Hints:
By secondary structure, this protein is an alpha/beta fold. The protein contains 9 helices and 11 strands. The strands form 3 sheets. It has a 7-stranded parallel β-sheet with strand order 3-2-1-4-5-6-10, with helices on both faces. A two-stranded parallel ribbon has the order 7-9. Strands 8-11 form a two-stranded antiparallel sheet. Helix 1 crosses helix 5 (209-221) and helix 2 runs parallel beside helix 3 (142-155). The termini are far apart. Belongs to the NAD(P)-dependent epimerase/dehydratase family. SDR39U1 subfamily. InterPro entries: Epimerase_deHydtase, NAD(P)-bd_dom_sf, SDR39U1.
Amino acid sequence: MEKPHRAVIAGANGFIGQFLSAHLIAQGWQVCGLVRKIPAEPVDGVSYQLWNGQSLGEWTSQLEGADLLVNLVGRSVNCRFTAENRQQILNSRIQSTQLLAESINQIEMPPKLWVNASGISGYAQNGAPGNDESAALDGEGFLAEVVRQWEDALFSAEIPSSVRRIAMRTGVVFGNHPGSAWTKLTQLARLMLGGPVGSGKQGVSWIAIGDYCRALEHLFHQHQLAGPVNFTSPNPLSNAEMMAAIRQLENRPFGAPAFSWMIHLAAPIVGIDPSLVLDSYWCLPEKLQSSGFHFTTAKISQMAQWGR
């Protein structure tokens, strides 16, 4: 009998980490989750190992002979971009990536594939048709700089050449989970507040959680894939189009708009930076599609299967 593949997921307690863990377990993988706290409701079949994301420890042995290492660690960007929060956002990503590189150099059999989270905010803001992975990371602003330093920590790390490295440049991940973007947007639509935000023309590059999990496993089997990979649907859309589609799914004919000046006034009260909803990114998953990956949720209208 063939030995099952084994994955180690750093940051397994988050929204994405929970879904990814459950997906891999369902596909016959063995999964170890590196977490700061053992979850009260663990994912069935996952073994958890405590770590602090800052120093080596017993958890390092979990990487020995692993087939896949996934790093999802990073302080949430859903906050005000104060000096302290900016430093935490950057440090959490850089330190965890550097620590994993250090741990790889401590073991005899390093993982075959290291997949590190990244973001699409490194790209310059643009209009349709969109950026694929050949576009430069020449975006401006804080989040663009975070992406550049994050990916540099991954690709400049001096680790064995046998370890294939991929940076997942991820858009907004939609799925039914408390506190997720999709849950918040559908709640707004039900309250008749799901109108366009700002101009409504800004691009939204998104991916359904089911396709995210399937795409990540797809990377493992596509040995020619390395470097940056866009984790976005092949159908980015404007904010106005997205909100209209969500209203239709929720059977709401109307949604009150939120003008840009409202966003700038409300953002400090809500505790977010206005750029999170007003910036524009149109991205395309060229590497995933050219390698044969098929999206099962390519359009927002198909989100009904994940939205409730």
